[in-house]
C-alpha cells in the first residue's frame, strides 16, 4: 500500500512538472525573435566607404534609433537627394510594438549590415519585424514562404479550406475601416477550434501599402503552392504577411 501511494504521489508530481514545462515552452514561443530570411539587393550596387550615401544611411539609421519609440510598430523614413536618396521601411509584428520593436530594429540593422555589407539595398526578416532599405514597389517580388515540416495526417482538404477561410476572415477584420484600436491598423489575429485542434493565425500589412486586401488575397492563394496540408506556414514580404500554426505563437 505504501508503495502504491508513493507511486501515485510520484506520478502526480511528474504530471505537475510536465505541465509547468509545457507552459514555459508555450510562453517561450511568444518571446522568440528568430532570424528568418534576408535578401541583398545586388542590382542596386554597393556604396563606397566614406561616401555621401554611407553618410546618409548612417544618419537615417541613427535618426530612427534616437527618435522612434514605435508606438504603432512602423516607420517609413527617407533622407538625402538622388542619387544618394535612401528610404528605410521598418515594421514590427502586431504584438511586438514599443520597446520590443525598438530591440528588433537594433537587431535587424546590425544583422543586415553584416549579411549585406555595403550593398545599397537589402531586406531582412525576423519573427517579430522586418527591415527594408530599398525603393518601395508594390510588385510582390520580395516574398517568400516557410512551413512546418509536419503534415496534417487526416482531413487535409477540410483543414486547408478551413485555414484559408479563417485567414480570409482575419483579412476582412484587418482591412475593416474605422477600427477602434488604430494601433492595430492593417493587423488581425485570432484562434479557431478545428475539431480537437486549435488553429492560431495572423495577417498584417505594411501601414503604407495601398492595397492591403489585394496583397493578403494573393498571399492566401499562394498557400496551396507552398504549404499544402502543412501544420503551420507563413507567407512573408515587405507589403504583407500571414502565418498560421497549431500552437500559440503571439503574445496575448
From TrEMBL:
Family designation: Belongs to the cysteine-rich repeat secretory protein family.
Species: Capsella rubella
UniProt entry keywords in alphabetical sequence: Repeat, Secreted, Signal
Protein name: Gnk2-homologous domain-containing protein
PROSITE patterns per the UniProt record, alphabetical: GNK2 (PS51473), RHODANESE_3 (PS50206)
One GO CC term on file: extracellular region
A Pfam short name: Stress-antifung
Gnk2-homologous domain boundaries: 35-138, 140-249
Rhodanese domain ranges (all copies): 87-135
Gene3D superfamilies, sorted: Gnk2 domain, C-X8-C-X2-C motif
Phylogenetic classification of the source organism: Eukaryota, Viridiplantae, Streptophyta, Embryophyta, Tracheophyta
Subcellular location: Secreted
Amino acid at each position: 500500500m505504501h508503495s502504491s501511494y508513493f507511486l501515485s504521489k510520484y506520478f502526480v508530481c511528474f504530471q505537475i512538472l510536465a505541465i509547468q514545462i509545457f507552459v514555459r515552452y508555450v510562453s517561450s514561443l511568444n518571446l522568440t525573435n528568430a532570424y528568418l530570411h534576408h535578401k541583398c539587393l545586388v542590382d542596386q550596387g554597393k556604396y563606397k566607404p566614406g561616401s555621401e550615401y554611407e553618410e546618409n544611411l548612417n544618419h537615417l539609421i541613427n535618426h530612427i534609433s534616437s527618435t522612434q519609440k514605435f508606438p504603432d510598430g512602423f516607420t517609413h523614413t527617407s533622407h538625402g537627394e538622388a542619387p544618394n536618396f535612401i528610404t528605410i521601411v521598418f515594421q514590427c509584428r502586431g504584438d511586438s510594438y514599443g520597446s520590443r520593436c525598438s530591440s528588433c530594429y537594433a537587431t535587424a540593422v546590425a544583422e543586415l549590415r553584416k549579411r549585406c555589407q555595403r550593398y545599397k539595398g537589402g531586406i531582412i526578416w525576423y519573427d517579430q519585424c522586418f527591415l527594408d532599405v530599398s525603393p518601395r514597389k508594390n510588385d510582390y517580388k520580395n516574398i517568400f514562404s516557410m512551413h512546418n515540416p509536419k503534415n496534417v495526417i487526416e482531413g487535409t482538404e477540410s483543414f486547408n479550406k478551413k485555414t484559408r477561410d479563417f485567414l480570409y476572415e482575419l483579412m476582412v477584420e484587418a482591412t475593416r475601416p474605422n477600427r477602434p484600436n488604430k494601433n492595430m491598423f492593417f493587423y488581425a489575429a485570432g484562434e479557431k477550434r478545428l475539431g480537437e485542434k486549435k488553429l492560431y493565425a495572423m495577417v498584417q500589412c505594411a501601414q503604407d501599402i495601398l492595397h492591403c486586401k489585394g496583397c493578403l488575397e494573393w498571399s492566401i492563394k499562394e498557400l496551396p503552392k507552398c504549404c499544402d496540408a502543412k501544420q503551420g506556414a507563413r507567407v512573408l514580404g515587405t507589403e504583407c504577411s500571414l502565418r498560421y500554426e497549431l500552437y500559440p505563437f503571439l503574445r496575448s
